[in-house]
Design goal:
Strands 1-2 form a two-stranded antiparallel ribbon. Strand 1 and strand 2 form a beta hairpin. It has one domain: Alpha-Beta Plaits, CATH 3.30.70.270. The chain has 101 residues and is α+β, with helices and mostly antiparallel strands. It contains 3 helices and 2 strands.
């Protein structure tokens, strides 16, 4: 709920936010260039990194993947599959390692 509220607070008119399942969300950004989509992803990442869930001061990590419909994907499923692949690449690249003693 916290993350969904966060996404809703920064979405633009016409953006569509949907939960895919578990902790995965998709944001459809109509009439958005690839560069604009990257800026939006970085804005989401920055806001999430600065955010904490109170009262336990939990700092969530986030992995983002994007794909732009420019005719190279045959359908929406292929587009989502590419975004999902990129999200897992981001997740593996930016793994947060915590050590507790």
């Amino acid at each position: 709920q916290h993350f969904a509220s966060l996404l809703n607070s920064i979405s633009r008119k016409g953006d569509v936010i949907t939960r895919l399942g578990g902790d995965e969300f998709a944001i459809l950004l109509p009439s958005t260039t690839s560069q604009e989509a990257h800026r939006i992803c970085e804005r989401i990442r920055k806001i999430c990194e600065e955010d904490s869930i109170k009262p336990i001061c939990l700092r969530p990590s986030i992995a983002l993947g994007d794909a732009t419909q420019k005719g190279e994907y045959q359908n929406t499923e292929a587009l989502l599959k590419e975004a999902d692949k990129r999200m897992y690449q981001d997740k593996n690249k930016n793994k947060v390692k915590e050590t507790f003693q």
